[in-house]
Amino acid sequence: MYDNSGGGAGAGGMANANAWFRIREPGGAGGREWTFQRDTVNNTDWRVKFSALDGFTGGTPGATQTPSAADEHVIFGSGTDASPTHTTLFPTDGTYRWHNVGFDVAEDGVYPWYAYSTINGTGVPRTLIMVDSLISGTYPALVGTRAAPTSGEPDPAVYLCAHDTLSDPFILLANSTQWQDRTNPPGRAWYAMNGSNGETEAVVNMQAAALMFSTSFGDRGAPANAAGSDGFGANPLSGEDQLFDMPYGRPVALGSNPHFKGMSGHLRISGVDRTYPDTTTQSGETWVYTATDGLLLPFADGVTPL
Description:
The structure is a single chain. This protein is mostly beta strands. It has a domain at about 90-300. It is built from no helices and 20 strands. The strands form five sheets. It has a seven-stranded antiparallel β-sheet, with no helix packed on it. Strands 1, 2, 3, 4 and 7 form a five-stranded antiparallel β-sheet that branches.
């Protein structure tokens, strides 16, 4: 990677135009990889790619050009490696906090991690980059290998690289029945492999669902809304906020490759209306409430969010 001298503009520094870096989950070759390339003039605009299996070992990489992978997907920004186009991924410098949560134990071969920004003083999320694992048993078990699957799910993960300057990167549809799947602005959608043919499978947009328990359209059990009129409230037996696993899927209405992906490993939706920086710890895991419709993100236990 081309970041040998940190954030400066000297040789190998990330402050240079089109500088980039590459990351890979533990485990060596075959692990999920990402490349991040900054803009020519600022720190806010980036081009981001991920590889679920093959790794970034091809192309003609240089100080201003990222390597390529046979299964790469440009998840944020556009253009080519030789002529990249960058898109705003971060808020204005100095206006936000940056949070990172990673898990050091693989979950069915996936090392989940979550990196997100919150605006100073409000906690409103603006950026979310993640590899989310799936809860084991909520998807068909893999038979064969990831590179040559016979059946089952070869990539039990969902990828997201999103930013929004107006509301947040994970808002609800107007009918409040499903998490929004949008490609305008780019990077607003959840992404996953289609789970059908391993290494050569296509990348498709996913949706993440909310829960509806109502007698009238628009009321919901989770996530609770800001007005507080919907939701389940706290569990009367434990006194804890009621949290729910979040399902991923691709409905038939979205076109090709419809399927249920599985349940989110570490994102939760809440039946209680709270906002950042409130946290809840349950079953040994801590989440922070975001200033949006009931989405909880993983957070460090015992740490007060800023």
